[in-house]
Amino acid sequence: MNILIAPDKFKGTLTGMEAACSIRDGWSTTRPEDDLRILPICDGGDGFGERLAELEKAKPVDCQTVDAAHRPLTAKWWWQEQQKMAIIESACIIGLAQLPSSRYHPFQLDTFGLGKVLLEVAKRGAETCVVGIGGSATNDGGFGMAKALGWRFENKAGEAITEWTDLDQLSLASAPSKRHLFEHLLIASDVENLLLGDKGASRIYGPQKGLRESDMEKSEACFRSLSRQVDALTGHEWRLEPGSGAAGGLGYGLMAFLGGKAESGFDFFADRADLNTQLAWADLVITGEGSLDLSSLMGKCVGNVAEKCREMGKPCIGIGGIVRNKEKLSNLFTGIYSITPDLTDQVSALKFASKWLKELSKKASNDIQV
Questions:
Q1: 88 and 224 belong to one structural domain
Q2: Which of 11, 112, 195, 358 is the residue whose CA sits 20 to 30 A from 254?
């Protein structure tokens, strides 16, 4: 059988590549005759930059900047000389993974460090810039990034606003002489939420970053004021664009301040990886992620792979560190397998993720009927 192994990362334990190799190694011990291909998948979140760089043969570049809390950081981006294309993974700069757990509140964080990297990329001569925006720690609407790019924000007294939490006092926004740094700026994200409202940046994704219910009114007021001024200045209602609420409003910032265009991170990756051809080759597809649940079907990589398999009539196995709502997932997957609680407890699963993923893959391979 031809088996395509196409998992996302198992967040906090294994990268997509590590997960794919573990599944492959487990499967091959019981079915060595099968032809196995690995294709770790990603969208715009953690691991996006490295995976896309592998596909595009882009080289890593180190850059001095700051993280979301303005602590000095040596960040990495990738450069494809022939295409004059830069690849940036926001999570490598302003991501939650860059910060100590629970030390900072989102009101203390911003996207300034990403802006500094964008300026470095522009100096390199990039014509196309691809920015994956998942996994961010910030909720500032791109304010910090805009400051780094030369935008100025003032209150009614003409005083500079330096913290995004003071944007509810915004009276004037001024753009730098050169607004757009690239011919093409692609925002890779699979989130279509708008900037404001009950399904906006703050209310839907803010709690994951530490926003409390008591913070919501302040956040919304700041975003309303920012978007009112910037949309008027630029002549476009960016706050109403799908994806403007992605990554704490960073989607909005990249559109409004830099003229970026949002595109599905998964679709962009799938096109570059020639995923449809890989699926056509396969007799069986194995995908998975750390937590396989209903959110996996809401525009995330694993659900997208499974949906493509259904469209092409290919059986698809779903593997997760933990699986929730298995009954509802079963409509999309031929088989569903979980490390916890099927094989071990959560502590062991996290500590020895590769080992247990191999064992789970063995179990799945034994269930296959030739």
A1: yes
A2: 11
Bond preceding residue 341 cis, omega within 30 of 0: yes
**Cα gap 355→339, rounded to integer Å:** 10
CB-based contact 142:257 (threshold 8 Å): yes
Coil, strand or helix: which one is 335?
A: strand
Between CA 264 and CA 307 the distance in angstroms is 15
Nearest to 243 by CA among 133, 151, 92: 133
User: Would you say 67 and 109 are in contact if contact means Cβ atoms under 8 Å apart?
Assistant: no
Task: Supply the pLDDT for residue 233.
Answer: 97
The dihedral of CA 19, 25, 26, 28: what is its sign?
A: positive
Whose structure tokens read 């935008």? 151
Q: pLDDT digits over 134-190, tens only?
A: 889 999 999 999 999 999 999 999 999 999 999 999 999 999 999 999 999 999 987
Answer yes or no: do 241 and 121 share one domain.
yes
For β-strands 184-188 and 128-132, DSSP reports them as: parallel
Alpha carbon 18 to its chain's center: 18
Q: Is residue 310 part of a domain?
A: yes
Whether residue 292 sits in one domain with residue 144: no
pLDDT at position 2: 97
Longest CA pairwise span in the chain (Å):
75
96-150 pLDDT per residue, tens: 888 998 899 999 999 999 999 999 999 999 999 999 998 899 999 999 999 999 9
Residue type, 165: T
Is the pTM above the cut of 0.70? yes
Mark which of 237, 263, 289 sits at the end of a domain.
263
One-letter amino acid at 108 equals Q
- 162 with 55, same domain: the answer is yes
DSSP string, 17-36: HHHHHHHHHHHHHH-TTSEE
Confidence band, pLDDT 50/70/90 cuts, at residue 57: very high
Evaluate whether residue 268 is within a structural domain.
no
